[in-house]
């Protein structure tokens, strides 16, 4: 079975083809440089850019793979959560392809697709505990199968990725700034007393990183030499005097540790709640962070679990994860009609699949 995947949930436009669980080809256009001018994603610009580049990426993917739409059995599209205007571009494009070709339409939960993405690189072992750490969401799931996810804990306000972006913005790093924080964090030992581990003094599995962002803002306000006068880049960081660079690295390492250890604590709790699982799956953009990967490696080893981490290229939004999730759903007989609805962030993506005859 060949499945085309379409991803337009935020600021990446991506398409990919998966056949029998194997990636045949993929195309991606990022909007990072465009949104960096504004310090974050501008929804209207994002949707217009998806509309502009998606047809071209689709044509390039068909040329790359040597296939035509008639060779494709199903079209999987990220239907939410995400920016509504952006999602509508992808959903509308997918519906048009299905209407013209007769291919099956499969709406994919963008968050679930992240956690299934490592299946492109190796067999996933279920049941699993899934930790999704991205720019907009920090969730834990009990994953029984590619079509059976039980939400255990969720973001209440700022997700881990938002905390990275806002912390980077406070210090005047470019958007997205998480990689600058991670790079500098490797140069210093964290001060584990500098910042709080937010929302751990409670029995819940939910996440809240807004307090950590505020703590960083207060610390930086008291130490203005941590802020670049103009927006920094790799060259500006490299040119810092040794003492100032060391102070900045200490702050980044301490912030990184607070995020990673908070995730560790909540994942430990989620494992007790979930019962017996075979593996720990960690995915999403923040899963590329060195400290987070090391913390989750420690959790998996302590519990005797197989740790499943996607390669760095599969951590951020991409079409391959949508195509693979759609392939898993399509081969299980699931699909949608042309009345498929796009679901913006803040609403629950419904389980409204239709079983194929």
How would you portray this structure in words?
The protein has helices at 32-36, 43-65, 84-101, 110-116, 160-170, 178-185, 210-222, 234-238, 242-274, 290-303, 319-331, and strands spanning 2-7, 12-19, 22-30, 74-80, 104-109, 128-133, 138-145, 148-153, 279-283, 306-308, 334-335, 354-355. The chain is of the alpha/beta class. A 5-stranded mixed β-sheet has the order 3-2-1-4-5, sandwiched between helices. Strand 6 and strand 7 form a beta hairpin. The chain is globular and about 65 Å long.
Biggest sheet: strands side by side, in what order? Answer: 3-2-1-4-5
Tell me the total number of β-strands.
12
The portion of residues assigned to helices is 40-55%
Question: Which series of helices and strands comes N to C?
Answer: EEEHHEHEHEEEHHHHHEHEHEE
Main structural class: alpha/beta
| Distance from first to last alpha carbon | 16 Å
* Average pLDDT score: 94
Globular, elongated, flat, extended or rod-shaped: what is the shape? globular
Low-confidence stretches: none
Instruction: Give the biggest beta sheet.
Output: 5 strands, mixed
Radius of gyration based on Cα positions:
21 Å
Number of helices: 11
Strand percentage: 15-25%
């Amino acid at each position: 079975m060949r499945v085309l995947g379409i991803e337009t949930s935020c600021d990446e436009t991506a398409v990919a083809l998966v056949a029998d669980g194997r990636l045949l080809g993929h195309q991606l256009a990022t909007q990072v440089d465009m949104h960096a001018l504004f310090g974050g994603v501008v929804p209207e610009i994002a949707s217009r850019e998806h509309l502009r580049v998606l047809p071209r990426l689709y044509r390039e993917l068909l040329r790359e793979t040597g296939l035509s739409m008639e060779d494709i059995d199903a079209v999987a599209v990220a239907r939410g959560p995400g920016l509504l205007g952006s999602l509508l571009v992808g959903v509308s494009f997918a519906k048009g392809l299905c209407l013209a070709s007769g291919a099956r339409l499969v709406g994919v939960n963008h968050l679930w697709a992240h956690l299934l993405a490592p299946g492109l690189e190796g067999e996933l072992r279920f049941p699993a505990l899934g930790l999704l750490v991205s720019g907009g969401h920090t969730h834990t799931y009990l994953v029984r199968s590619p079509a059976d996810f039980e939400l255990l804990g969720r973001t209440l306000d700022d997700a881990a990725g938002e905390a990275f972006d806002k912390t980077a913005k406070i210090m005047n790093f470019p958007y997205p700034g998480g990689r600058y924080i991670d790079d500098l964090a490797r140069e210093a030992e964290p001060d584990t007393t500098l910042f709080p581990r937010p929302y751990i003094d409670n029995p819940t599995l939910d996440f809240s990183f807004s307090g950590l962002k505020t703590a960083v803002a207060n610390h930086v306000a008291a130490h203005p030499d941590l802020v670049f006068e103009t927006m920094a880049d790799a060259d500006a960081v490299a040119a810092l005097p040794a003492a100032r660079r060391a102070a900045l690295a200490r702050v980044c390492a301490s912030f990184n540790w607070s995020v990673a250890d908070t995730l560790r604590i909540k994942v430990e709790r989620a494992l007790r709640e979930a019962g017996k699982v075979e593996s720990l799956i960690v995915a999403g953009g923040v899963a590329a962070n060195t400290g987070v990967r090391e913390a989750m490696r420690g959790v998996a080893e302590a519990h005797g679990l197989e740790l499943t981490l996607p390669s760095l290229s599969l951590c951020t939004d991409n079409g391959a994860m949508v195509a693979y999730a759609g392939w898993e759903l399509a081969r299980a007989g699931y699909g949608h009609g042309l009345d498929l609805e796009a679901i913006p962030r803040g609403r629950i993506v419904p389980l409204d699949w239709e079983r194929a005859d």
